[in-house]
Amino acid sequence: MPTYQRKKHYRKPKSGAQRQSGSQRRSNVPRRETKKQGERIFIYKPDMNVAQVAEAFGLTNAGMIKKLMQLGLMTSINQIIDRDTIEVIALEEGYEVQDEVITDVTRYDEMEIEDDPTDLVKRPPIVTVMGHVDHGKTTLLDTIRQSRVVEGEAGGITQHIGAYQVIRNDQPITFIDTPGHAAFTEMRARGAKVTDICILVVAADDGVMPQTLEALDHAKAAKVPIIVAINKIDKVGSNPERVMTELSEKELIPEAWGGKTPFVPISALKNQGIEELLDVIQLLADIDEFKANPNRLAKGTVIEASLDKGRGPVATLIVETGTLKTGDFIVIGNTYGKVRTMNDDLKKRYTEAKPSQPVEVTGLNEVPQAGDVFMAFEDEKVTRQIALERQSRQREGENKSVKKASLDRMFGDMESSEKELNIIIKGDVQGSIEALRGMLEKIDIAGFHVNVVRSSVGAITENDVTLASASSAIIIGFNVRPTSAVKQFADTEGVEIRLYNIIYRVSEDIEAALKGMLEPTFEEIVTGQAEVRDLFKVSKIGTIAGCYVTDGVVKRDALVRVLREGVVVYEGKLASLKRFKDDAKEVKSGFECGLSIANYNDIKIGDIIEASQMKEVEVD
Ligand code: GDP
To answer: Whose CA is nearest to atom 17 of ligand 1?
Structure first.
């Protein structure tokens, strides 16, 4: 069988990229494979479910389920099949079962990629702009972007792709074009380190504000050098000194005061101080020397991704190291693709993207997530295998972390104390998904809340349905639709897909669904009391108590408590209620009645029968 070995050290390859020969590859994905003529191999992995086994044998799910039925096993497609059963089917199908050999190729993000220091060359700095709301982050990013037009580099209309480059003194600088620290933090949380320098924008008329401090914390946590841009210096009443004083108290001592932090007074609106700011960035980059090896297959991070109506999944990538070329096969998060086109925010096409260069890429199979790592490979098969393996690992991880079958429990036997509705959110843009997620996670109806199992950009896929099925989740599609094949799959799996295009409708519906799920809350209401004055033993029925209703009303369907000298001796239900010889629906205070209590004959004269009714109460 062919093997694939992880490469620990990348030396300068002859072709300018690392290569693995065909004989060095190994698949970990169960698949049909021809070993010798007529001899087929089934790669066994622990915890394979019916669907996965079916796929590996090249059978349909239904065909597989039928085969298992013939073996006396009633299964659903998500059920795990043991190795012995697989062996039996393999025998029938003419396969040899072999255990999977785990190699590190499936975990490229854990590969130790060591470039030879002599291969490293300078790369442009990647800059993120952070700061308090309204302090001018967007204006600054726009002004810097526009500065290219002045240089005559481009006059076209720009499109937002999440990152752009400006060339200054022949040196490019990359700007992440999503102001604010939310995106920065999310990416960092996902392990992506895409920022070399952080610009902290503080409005000179407003000073240090809560989000300034938050941004500062994030930049410090990421150990990224900070440049303070004191903005809005054109404004009357602006006070740059105040910003310097306030930040000094937070250990950002201005260079002018003997500290290490550059403070640059600017007006993003009036285009003042921008050149100086760019100078400082390049100075800092010269000192810190950000480096990468352009002569290898590319690796980097997804900055933004979305589903484009015409072009399919598109993602803006920043190359961290290596050179990304059109035609390269890339694993990207849990999906893969072949780089079809690359362009920048000015719609300029590229066939190569160098380290630190942001490019919008098409040719992917699914929409990845911001913060996902990507890596290029030369071989399509390996790329596909790695992506599939990562998908199944993710599924396993998600399945494990998910508290299973909560929806069933809520609608069903109500045994669970879990009060969660599992939801998968799929949408067309990250922004609306985040908004939806935030809104849904805030819902709390009498302790019931929403657990978002997955939220990502892109169409609803079979993968989502499988996860939903495994976790009893419902799928919310926001401005995205499932294909009819996926819809059919969801139907067979019993997975509910709800489609929306208005955000608040989603929360309205989910709230309603949660309310519907609530166990109706009942309250016991005492309706009346009766005193036992006589007893009759009736052979087939048991003890009949001759009572006098002293208070309220005793109803036939009442729950009763037998009180003896103020102590409850029995709780149960009435078995019969009669007025003279006739059955009665209820007997009111001041009347006599005969009653018997289900499964209880030990009534005594003088006992008090307290009758009550359970009444549903509204919760909201
Ligand atoms: P963000 O929320 O930090 O992205 O802030 P914006 O870039 O949207 O700016 C908020 C407001 O401040 C807008 O009305 C801008 O026109 C204004 N603004 C931004 N920079 C300057 C500046 O340098 N001077 C003045 N006077 N106004 C500015």
So the answer is: 136
